[in-house]
C-alpha cells in the first residue's frame, strides 16, 4: 500500500520535472528567437534609436518618476471615494421597497450613463465644462474635476461588481437571516455584504489596476503627470524613449497589483474547492 | 546586441533594395514634372509632391482647413515651394499627420510636412528640417482682468498661472524664460488651452503670435494679446521649418526653393497677405 503511493509520488514528481523542463526550453526558444530576429529587421536601428535611447532615458527618467507621484496621489484620494459611491449605488440598486423605485431608477441611469461614456470624453466634459460655469480659481482646479470624473466613471463600474457580488449570495441566506428576525438592513450588513465582499475581491483588484492607468487621463485637462511629462520630453527630444521609461514606471506599480489579484483569485478557487486541470 | 559587420552592410542593402522596388512598383503616369534635378525627383510617389499638415489645420496657417485651396500662410508657402521644386499645383497631394507620425521611425507618408514645427537641435537628430520659412515671436493671450494684464516685463508675470500646448516652444518659453512660480498646465492642443482660459483654470496662455492674434480676435470673447516677446528684447523666437525624413534626398531641394522665394520677395509677400497684423501687439521685455 505504502509502496504503491510512493511509486505514484515518484511518477508525479517525474511528470512535474518534465513539465518544468518543457516550459523552460520553450521559453528560452521564444525569447532567443525574439532577441536574435528582431535586431535583424531592416528598421531595427531606427527603432532602437527612437525608442531605446540610453541618454534620453537617463535624462528624462527622474522627471518622469517625480511626475508619477501626482498619479499616485490622484489614485490614493480617488479610490476611497470610488468605494463609497459605488457601494451606495449598488445598495440603491438592491433596494426592494416599492417606495424607493426612484432611487433604483437613479442607480440604473447612473451606471448606464457613466459606464457608457469613455473616460477620456468624461474628463474633457467635466474637467472643462463644470469650471466654465464660473467657479473660483480654487474650485476650478482641474485636479479636483479630473478626480471627480474618475470617481464617477469608476464607481459606476465598481457598483456593478458589487451588485454582482450581492446577487451571487444565495437567496436562502437572506431568507434565513430574515427568519431569524433580522431587519432588511441588518441582513444586508451582517449576512449578505460580508459574503459578497469575498467574491468580488479579484474583479475589484482588476478594476484597481485599470484605474492606475486611467489616472493619466487627468493630464488632458492640464496637470502635468507622468504621461504628459513623457509627451513633453518626447517632443523635446523627438524621441519615444520617454514613453518606454513611463511604461516601465507604470509596470512597477501595476505588476505587483496584478500578481496580488491573481493570488486572491487562486486563494478563492482553492477555498471554494475548484479543481485545476492542466 | 551587436550585429556582425557583414550583416550591417547587408541590412541597409536590403532596405535600399526594397525602396528601389517600391519606387519601380509605383505608377509612372504622373509624368516628369520635376525640373530634372535628381534631388527634387526623389518623392515617395513619382512626379507627385506629397505635403502633410495637421488634422485639422488652423487659421491663419490654412484657411477653412482646406490646404488644397492654397489659402492661408502655410498652404501658400507650400505651393510656392512646390512650384520652385518643379511641381505645379496639380502635382501636389495633401495628407494629414499628427506630430508623432512625422517623427516616428520607418517609412513616411509624406515628402514634406509643415504644421508650425519649430526647429530645435534635439528634434534635428531624428528628422530633417528645411531652412525656416517663418520666424515667430511668442505671445501671451489673457482674458480681461487677468493677473497678466498690463505686464511690461517678465518680472510682472511671475505669479501668473500659465497654460500652453504640449511639445511647443511656447511651453519651453514658459518654463525656461518666464519661469513662473506655479507650474504651467499643459494641453494636447491650443483648443485645450483656450478651454482652460474660459474655465478660469489658467490666467494666460502662450502661443506663437499669429495663433495668439487669431485666438484673441475670433475664438475667445473678451480676450486680447497682452504682449509679445521679440528677439531684440531677449525673447526666444520660434523658427518654423518643414519636416522631412531624416537624411531625405529632398531636403537640399526644399532648402533651395525656400532660399529662392525668400530672396525674390515671394515669401515676404505671402507673409504680408496672410500674417499682416502681427506687428500691432504690445511688446514685453525679457531682460
Mean pLDDT of chain A, to the nearest integer, reads: 90
Portion in beta strands of chain A: under 5%
- Uncertain segments of chain A are none
N-to-C span of chain A: 27 Å
What value does the Rg of chain A take, in angstroms?
Answer: 25 Å
The largest pleated sheet of chain B is described as:
5 strands, mixed
Report strand % of chain B.
15-25%
Count of beta strands of chain B: 10
CATH arch. level architecture of the largest domain in chain B = 3-Layer(aba) Sandwich
Describe this structure in words.
The complex is a heterodimer of chains A (278) and B (287). Chain A has 278 residues and is mainly α. Chain A has a single domain (54-270), classed as MetI-like (MetI-like fold). Chain A has helices spanning 2-37, 44-51, 54-93, 101-116, 119-129, 142-168, 171-179, 184-214, 226-237, 241-271. The two termini of chain A are 27 Å apart. Chain B has two domains: 33-134 and 239-277, D-Maltodextrin-Binding Protein, domain 2 (3-Layer(aba) Sandwich); 138-229, 3-Layer(aba) Sandwich (D-Maltodextrin-Binding Protein, domain 2), CATH 3.40.190.10. Chain B contains nine helices and ten strands. In chain B, strands 7-6-8-5-9 form a five-stranded mixed beta sheet. Chain B has a three-stranded parallel beta sheet with strand order 2-1-3, with helices on one face. In chain B, strands 4-10 form a two-stranded antiparallel ribbon. Mean pLDDT of chain B is 81; it is low at 1-38. Chain A binds chain B through residues 35, 39-40, 42-47, 49-51, 124, 127-129, 131-132, 134-137, 140-142, 219-224, 228, 231-232, 234-240, and chain B through 1, 3, 7, 11-12, 14-15, 18, 99-100, 103-106, 120, 122-127, 161, 163, 166-168, 171-172, 183-188, 192, 195-196, 198-202.
Amino acid at each position: 500500500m505504502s509502496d504503491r503511493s510512493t511509486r505514484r509520488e515518484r511518477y508525479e514528481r517525474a511528470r512535474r520535472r518534465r513539465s518544468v523542463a518543457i516550459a523552460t526550453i520553450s521559453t528560452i526558444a521564444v525569447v532567443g528567437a525574439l532577441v536574435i530576429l528582431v535586431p535583424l529587421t531592416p528598421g531595427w536601428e531606427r527603432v532602437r534609436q527612437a525608442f531605446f535611447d540610453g541618454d534620453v532615458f537617463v535624462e528624462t527618467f527622474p522627471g518622469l518618476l517625480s511626475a508619477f507621484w501626482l498619479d499616485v496621489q490622484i489614485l490614493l484620494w480617488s479610490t476611497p471615494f470610488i468605494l463609497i459611491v459605488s457601494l451606495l449605488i449598488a445598495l440603491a440598486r438592491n433596494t426592494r421597497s416599492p417606495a424607493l423605485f426612484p432611487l433604483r431608477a437613479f442607480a440604473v441611469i447612473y451606471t448606464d450613463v457613466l459606464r457608457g461614456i469613455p473616460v477620456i470624453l468624461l474628463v474633457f466634459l467635466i474637467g472643462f465644462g463644470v469650471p466654465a460655469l464660473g467657479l473660483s480659481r480654487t474650485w476650478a482646479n482641474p485636479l479636483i474635476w479630473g478626480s471627480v470624473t474618475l470617481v464617477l466613471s469608476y464607481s459606476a463600474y465598481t457598483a456593478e461588481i458589487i451588485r454582482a457580488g450581492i446577487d451571487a449570495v444565495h437567496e436562502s441566506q437572506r431568507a434565513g437571516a430574515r427568519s431569524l428576525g433580522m431587519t432588511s438592513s441588518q441582513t444586508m450588513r451582517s449576512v449578505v455584504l460580508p459574503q459578497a465582499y469575498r467574491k468580488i475581491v479579484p474583479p475589484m483588484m482588476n478594476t484597481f489596476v485599470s484605474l492606475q492607468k486611467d489616472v493619466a487621463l487627468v493630464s488632458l485637462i492640464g496637470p502635468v503627470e507622468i504621461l504628459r511629462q513623457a509627451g513633453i520630453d518626447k517632443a523635446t527630444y523627438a524621441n519615444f524613449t520617454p514613453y518606454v521609461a513611463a511604461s516601465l514606471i507604470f509596470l512597477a506599480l501595476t505588476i505587483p497589483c496584478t500578481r496580488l489579484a491573481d493570488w486572491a483569485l487562486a486563494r478563492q478557487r482553492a477555498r471554494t474547492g475548484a479543481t485545476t486541470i492542466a | 546586441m551587436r550585429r556582425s559587420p557583414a550583416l550591417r552592410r547587408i541590412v541597409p542593402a536590403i532596405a535600399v533594395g526594397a525602396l528601389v522596388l517600391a519606387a519601380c512598383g509605383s505608377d509612372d503616369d504622373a509624368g516628369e514634372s520635376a525640373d530634372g534635378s535628381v534631388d527634387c525627383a526623389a518623392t515617395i510617389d513619382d512626379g507627385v509632391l506629397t505635403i502633410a499638415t495637421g488634422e485639422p489645420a488652423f487659421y491663419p496657417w490654412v484657411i477653412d482647413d482646406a490646404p488644397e485651396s492654397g489659402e492661408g500662410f502655410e498652404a501658400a508657402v507650400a505651393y510656392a515651394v512646390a512650384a520652385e521644386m518643379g511641381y505645379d499645383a496639380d502635382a501636389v497631394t495633401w495628407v494629414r499627420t499628427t506630430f508623432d507620425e512625422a517623427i516616428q521611425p520607418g517609412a513616411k507618408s509624406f515628402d514634406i510636412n509643415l504644421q508650425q514645427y519649430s526647429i530645435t537641435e534635439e528634434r534635428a537628430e531624428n528628422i530633417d528640417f528645411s531652412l525656416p520659412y517663418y520666424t515667430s515671436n511668442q505671445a501671451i493671450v489673457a482674458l480681461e482682468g487677468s493677473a497678466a494684464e498690463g505686464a511690461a516685463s517678465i518680472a510682472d508675470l511671475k505669479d501668473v498661472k500659465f497654460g500652453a500646448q504640449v511639445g511647443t516652444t511656447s511651453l519651453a518659453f514658459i518654463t525656461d524664460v518666464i519661469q513662473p512660480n506655479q507650474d504651467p498646465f499643459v494641453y494636447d492642443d491650443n483648443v485645450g488651452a483656450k478651454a482652460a482660459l474660459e474655465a478660469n483654470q489658467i490666467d494666460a496662455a502662450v502661443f506663437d503670435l499669429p495663433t495668439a492674434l487669431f485666438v484673441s480676435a475670433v475664438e475667445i470673447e473678451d480676450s486680447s494679446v497682452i504682449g509679445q516677446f521679440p528677439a531684440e528684447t531677449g525673447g526666444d523666437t520660434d523658427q518654423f521649418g518643414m519636416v522631412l525624413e531624416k537624411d531625405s534626398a529632398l531636403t537640399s531641394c526644399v532648402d533651395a526653393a525656400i532660399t529662392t522665394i525668400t530672396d525674390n520677395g515671394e515669401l515676404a509677400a505671402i507673409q504680408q497677405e496672410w500674417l499682416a497684423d502681427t506687428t500691432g501687439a504690445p511688446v514685453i521685455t525679457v531682460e
